[in-house]
Amino acid sequence: MTRPPLYFAARLAAGALLAGCASTQLPLTDFTANSGAPRAPEQLAVTFEKADLALRVDPATRSIRGDASLTFLVNGDTPAPLARIAVELDRNLPLDGASVDGVALAPSAISNPDGRLYLTLPSPLPAGARATVRIRYHGVPHVAKRAPWDGAFVWSHTEDGQPWIATTVEGEGCDLFWPCIDHPMGKPTLIDLHISVPAPLVVAGNGVALGMDERDGWRTYHWRAKHPSTYGVALNIGPYELLSGDYASRYGNTIPLRLWYLKGHERQARGLFGEFAPMLDFFERRIGPYPFGDEKMGVVETPHLGMEHQTINAYGNGYLKSPYGYDWLLHHELSHEWFGNQMTNADWDDMWLHEGFGSYMQPLYLQWLRGDREFQAELFNHRKSLLNKAPVVSGKPQRIEDVYDDERGGPGNDIYTKGSLILHTLRNLIGDDAFFRATRRMVYGTDTPAPGNFQPRWSSTREFIAIVNQMAGRDLNWFFDAYLYHAALPELVEARDGDTLRLSWKLKDGGPFPMPLEVRILDDQGERIVQLPMSGGRGELTLPANALYTIDPGSRVLRQQAHIDEWKRDDDERKKKKAKAP
Q: Is the pTM of this model over 0.85?
């Protein structure tokens, strides 16, 4: 590593001294450390219209200073005048002052005991009234230990010693660096960002670039984004260089393409940039229009692996292609522009709608890009990973880490790979037309999305089930009940008696499961596929004594399989022994 320029060397040395003092910070409260707690009544009573956030980020002291103006409209159905505004903000970021429509609030009107900041209004607001709250604050923000798996600031540096900074706050929430409503349904309609950093650093931001000002050795970058997901608002700061281009969408609009990368990585960055267009074409053909075509498809190189920050996806995969010949991380994070930012889960309990769809898009892309071998190989990689310890959906409000962390009793990684395989099974059950029409309806709120005729929206597991039932023209609640609301997979019981093969579905918790099956038969007459409707969860067929058969030869149905269970037990034991070995 070369020595950093003297300017940054001095500032980084000062930062190291302050970083040592950061250990005196109070730990994050349980409330702040876990995104997605139920919204306060004061938050349910308002529409979050706009956030205007000015943030000064100082790499030398690893500190921030914020000035946020938040505009709220009191909903028309609010039964009583609103007495307080409630937002979330880490208590380690103390306030320098707060005001409402220019009227300063006394300290007694400000309360933040555990990370939910309450501001008592000078006078209550009736239904239909609008107010702008200004919150000024500062401090040393929480630092991520292992981003992006834990959220906060990442203070890193480039190979030549220049600051390289990022935020990733999916698990802990937006309140780690700006006052917000830390819930999936807490999106502001509009956010303006004014991020100040020491020159010559660059800020790659959400939405549309509105220019840059430079004064007294500091640069302020201005960005504007519409309907940003709360954890999708991100800071990305570094000595970036930029690749730019345009994508001619099949929907007639032109989408700006932007990739911010570090000096010395141009060759690799151009290779990654070349993957933007085919990935966009795949998603637009399979799902529908890129949701933020009037802003950009943006990617920024980061010191952590990645995250689906809206229109500025974080990328830290080292430009490493998978054996399938594409960058899996770029593809997965891009998928979240549809499944996460355009369609956002109404509650973290519905997170499988983000990760399950995002994961299923990868084998579908491989099928389109490479063929059926890669498609099935990736689906089998998904199948090998399943835990089946907890239901994918609990049916009750959840905080995000209670979903992502299997040690807390959540489904963990199953929301990705089991979610993917559930969708694959559903697609084979109802057919491509119904499956993709249901997907589009969930994502866009319409069957015929086109640029300009949809807005970002929230969805839930229950809504998706209702949409699927409508598109399929039948009640498929038995399917979702078995796969989403129960941990154990359906088991297929086989019994062969002479020339008769009897098959029956068995659910650990009982209930109907009339899942159709294919059986491939190889006998003296040749090879053929037999369709079993499995009405009532049972089916049988006649087989010659010397016939060979394969159940579900196309791997269309997710089910419990003894050989995979045995392999997983053996694999787990080997890993435990290896971990204990000296």
A: yes
